[in-house]
Design a protein that fits this description.
145 residues; alpha+beta; six-stranded mixed beta sheet; 3 helices; 6 strands; 32% strand
Amino acid sequence: MPEDRLWFTPYDWSRSYVLPESVACNIPHRGSLDGYGAWNVARGVLVELCRALPATPVSLLYDEPVLRHDWMRNAIRITAHARRADGQDVRVIYRSERTDAEPWPEFWSVAVNGLIPASGRDVRRPSPPWIAHTAAHTLRTELGR
């Protein structure tokens, strides 16, 4: 995939992703002006995953494994669960972590049904469309589906 498709673009930041009410999630189903930006990224991962596969959204879990008051480390984990038309469940876990400690001050990874096809050690994070296309490509090539 071309380098310029990997990272956030101004369009990614202006999109507003809305989840159907049937989706089980622990964040609001739609964004708001005062909403948390990472929540929109989380919704975007699930919406773009369903668009890339195609699939039906099932659930979304947003988590911050580290307490917010720990300024030395900031981490998010997004677990997007979708179901394809053939009944196959697909789970994508996107992790992003920033820390002032070694060995890697900045880290992100994408896991698809337990496989980790992409990760990075820098501040450039992948966009929701790129995460979804990575998942679709992984399912086609590595899992043969």
